[in-house]
Amino acid sequence: MGDAPTGPEGEPGDEPLYVLTAVLLTPARFPSVLGDDFPQACAALGLAPHDAGYGLVLGQDGAGARWTVVTADVSLVACAIATWDCGMEYELTLDDRSVTASLPGWPLAVAVAVPGIPAPHDPPPGADGARPPLTPADAERWGPAQRRLGADEIALQWASWREQISDEDTFVPAGRQPHQGVRRVLEEARGYTRTPPPAGRVRSAFAPGQARTLRADGPGWSLVARTDDIAFVLLDEAPGEVLPVGRGPELPALLSALDELAVRPG
User: For bias kind Pro residues, which ranges apply (predicted)?
Assistant: First the structure.
């Protein structure tokens, strides 16, 4: 897909980095596996939470080692992602002056590799005792990262999840909930409407019709909803469980208020 510069033993320099994929790290769009909000996601990578955000370029060096190159050229990375999403080729080549950091490892799972070089592996430890390599979340255990990834999947595959729930199903009501965990989630979400949370804690994205898809996170919980429909809640305390919240008389107003304060893609 392109290349970016790296140097001897994987440090920034003249040796090429073979680009495999890239993602955005901005208040409106970031890998939620890294944190509940934009500042947390930045902190997981040792980055300052600048409002403009970053682009994360994942690739291999000539020895096959995994590297994540952080660039301040967000527009370039956004253009590359949009082009790849359309099924077209784009040679993503970074300018040295835009590179903010070069981090060992990948924070996300990447299913492809560069042909003709060694298989992806962690680079050798730096002589200066650099940070341990980034690694994807363990799919075999349940925790905050897996809970957020589950909510992302529901948002991405909303129609598939929604069709599993009929009007005859038992919802967790949005008013007086018998489920203590869901009650806590909705109370904390209402708190966001009174005291705005950190950037990216609530995000709004396009949905069919006049609706929006909402993603909200908090300590131990994730919520995904359509502003014209129901919501789903995932909890750290309920491994793998997806709790549908009925629309009822209270949920529409909450979702509307969250959408008003949510960060939206530019």
Answer: 117-126
Residue 199: both structure tokens together: 């950037």
Distance of CA 254 to the CA centre of its chain: 23
The first and second tokens of residue 124, run together, are: 């050798």
Helices 180-194 and 251-261 pack at an angle, to 10 degrees, of 40
| Lookup result for tokens 């396009």 | 206
| 8 and 88, same domain (yes or no) | yes
pTM: 0.87
Residue 1, token pair as written in the block: 């897909």
Domains of the chain: total = 2
Task: Give 205's strand partners.
Answer: 213
Q: Please answer whether residues 226 and 211 qualify as being in contact, where contact means their C-beta atoms are separated by less than 8 angstroms.
A: yes
Mean pLDDT per block of 10 residues along the chain (266 residues) reads 42 71 96 96 96 96 95 96 92 91 94 93 71 89 96 95 75 64 94 96 93 96 96 95 89 96 86
Whole-angstrom Cα distance, residue 130 to residue 239?
Answer: 34
Residue 126 in any domain: the answer is no
